[in-house]
Amino acid sequence: SYVACALTYMLIFIPIYGAARYLYLRKNGKTSVIDAKYEILLFAFVMYCIGLASLTVLPGVGGVENYRIEFLADEIILVPFTVLRHTFANLTKGYYGLFFINFLGNIIVFVPLGFFISKIFRISLWKTALIGLCISLFIEVSQLFIAGRRSDIDDLWLNSFGALIGGAIAEVVKKRGKTQVSKIRQKKGQTDKWTT
Predict the structure, then answer these.
(1) Around Cβ 109, how many Cβ atoms within 10 Å?
(2) Is 0.85 topped by the overall pTM?
(3) CA-to-CA distance for 145 and 171, rounded, in angstroms?
């Protein structure tokens, strides 16, 4: 299954990432001043990227029979909003699979990407969406050469919208964090005032 494949790739890359990150921190003399929250966030981001790659461009674990250099022109959908039309047509017939997988799925899978990019690199919301678009474009182009995959122009805007939502969530979390810190400082200031 997709989940089992993603977990397998993650387990393979955990020791590789751990060793590489340790060597980087050691080389730059940062092993004694590690920011635990940042390291956890970065680790989660890397694991997410590996999981995303396993679902989109990496071959299935245990075989590469569908992974070959072959341009699959018949697997391209270049007509915009095709997924919307197909989704609506299926919904009117009582079929919800396409809505959850092709429509919502393409949005939700990129929400963590937008969140992580915004939190780790501290960039604007629109830059986050642009990076999401570029990554989605890379995936769609790569899938032209993978049997069993289909490149769909609608995936670009659905994925970008997902990244935008993730970035917006990160902004809300950031603002709420600042508000909490401000309230704590105000309370501390009032306490210091009464104690002096």
Answers:
(1) 20
(2) no
(3) 37
